[in-house]
Task: inverse folding
C-alpha cells in the first residue's frame, strides 16, 4: 500500500479480506498480516492461494474480530467498508489499533460511462436485475485530495491523507466476464437460472470485442489516523 503503510515491522489486519487479495499482494513489503472475513469459503480460498506465505487467516465479521486491544499498527478495508456497520466496526477498529495507528480504506470501481464494454455489461445486468442499484458509477474527479475528516469518524480518527486517481486495468474477455459475474448484481442476487442466462448473453457480447482490452477505473484511498 502507498502512504508508507503495511511495510516491514508493521502488524496489520485486513478486514473483509475475501480471498486475501490485499495481504497476498502486500506480502512482499514485509508487514505481518492477519486476514479476516465472514465467509469460511473465502477464507479457505485465501489460505490456499497464500500457500508458502506467512499470512494468518480467520473467519470473523469486521465487527467481531477478537484480538486484544492495541494488537495492530494498521487496519485495512479494501472494497468492503461500505458493508460494515460503522457504529459497531469503528469502535472495534479503534480498539484494535495501537496509539497513532492507521485505518486505511480503499475502493476501486470501473467507470461504465467511459467504457462501452462496461456500459453494455451493466445494461445486461439491469435486464435481468432491474432493481440493482450499482450501475452508472460516476465519481467526482475534481476531488483527488482532501484533508476533511468524515463525520462518521466521531472523534476516533482524523484524516491523514485522502487521494484518488484513475487507472486502466487490463482484462481478457474471460476475466471481465468473471469480474462482472461476481458483482452484487449477478452472482450475489440472481438465481442460478438467471445467472446462466445473463452469462450466455454476456459471453456472446464479449465475443464481438477484442480478446484483451483495458477498462478505466477510479481508485480512492483514505488513510485515517487513530486519535
Result:
Amino acid at each position: 500500500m502507498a502512504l508508507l503503510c503495511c511495510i516491514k515491522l508493521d502488524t496489520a489486519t485486513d478486514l473483509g479480506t475475501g480471498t486475501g487479495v490485499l495481504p497476498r499482494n502486500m506480502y512482499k513489503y514485509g508487514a505481518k498480516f492477519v486476514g479476516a472475513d465472514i465467509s469460511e469459503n473465502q477464507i479457505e480460498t485465501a489460505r490456499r492461494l497464500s500457500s508458502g506465505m506467512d499470512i494468518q487467516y480467520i473467519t470473523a465479521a469486521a465487527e467481531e474480530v477478537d484480538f486484544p486491544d492495541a494488537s495492530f499498527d494498521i487496519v485495512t478495508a479494501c472494497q468492503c467498508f461500505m458493508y460494515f456497520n460503522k457504529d459497531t466496526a469503528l469502535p472495534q477498529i479503534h480498539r484494535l489499533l495501537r496509539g497513532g495507528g492507521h485505518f486505511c480504506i480503499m475502493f476501486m470501481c470501473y467507470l461504465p460511462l467511459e467504457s462501452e464494454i462496461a456500459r453494455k455489461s451493466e445494461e445486461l445486468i439491469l435486464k435481468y436485475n432491474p432493481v440493482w442499484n450499482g450501475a452508472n458509477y460516476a465519481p467526482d474527479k475534481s476531488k483527488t485530495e482532501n484533508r476533511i475528516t468524515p463525520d462518521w469518524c466521531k472523534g476516533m480518527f482524523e484524516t491523514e491523507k485522502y487521494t484518488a486517481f484513475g487507472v486502466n486495468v487490463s482484462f481478457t474477455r474471460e476475466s471481465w466476464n468473471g469480474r462482472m459475474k461476481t458483482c452484487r448484481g449477478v452472482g450475489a442476487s440472481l438465481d442460478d437460472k438467471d445467472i446462466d442466462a445473463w452469462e450466455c448473453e454476456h459471453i456472446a457480447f464479449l465475443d464481438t470485442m477484442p480478446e484483451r482490452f483495458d477498462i478505466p477505473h477510479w481508485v480512492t484511498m483514505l488513510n485515517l489516523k487513530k486519535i
Notes: Strands lie at 11-15, 32-37, 56-59, 72-78, 97-110, 157-172, 212-226.
